[in-house]
């Protein structure tokens, strides 16, 4: 089908304004997750955490996390959360964000979860024009797209982190596709290193193995906000970090 275009976004993190325009000029939108904004490392006034605890406490939490002092960060957070019904407060805030962002999705949208998302809430907000896939496939414009959401376990303990085995099973379930869409990248140093945070994020070895084995035309992902390398070829596959949509406000376009 000539003249088909898919716009792809990832790491939306509360950028509803630009999300509402992300489908312009495209036949479909693909979203690779991380809709929720818990805190903004660039703007400490935005997100669930600063709304609850203020900018000064957010400054301190970011300082600890950036220094990879995760145990101290958890202890600091625990003191702030003491006496607060954490689950209720977070769910209320996430629901507000989801209501706004799912309403901004164009039709059709194909979406999978990021590591900071809460999958159990998505069915309440995904309208008929939004197809949610995780370990599943969809034909879009005559090409087969496979979707695997979430992230692998880390000291950050974000909401949707799963075991390497569970993640590998979802990759296996997707099988051979033209375009393999995931939230996290394959486990390649240049693709998982964040040049601003100055750390390696977790990539998937199972995803890398699948790229070598099944040779999709494209492997699309996000998760690493400022990668050392945004695009590289692995065998027959063009691997692309589609960008940090929260800051850029621009989708990445795939045309054929």
UniProtKB/TrEMBL annotation:
SUPFAM superfamilies: Metallo-dependent phosphatases. Pfam families: Metallophos. Transmembrane segments: none annotated. InterPro entries: Calcineurin-like_PHP, Metallo-depent_PP-like, UPF0046_metallophosphoest. It comes from the Bacteria. Residues 4-227 form the Calcineurin-like phosphoesterase domain. PANTHER family: CALCINEURIN-LIKE PHOSPHOESTERASE DOMAIN-CONTAINING PROTEIN, METALLOPHOSPHOESTERASE. This is Metallophosphoesterase. It comes from Streptomyces durmitorensis.
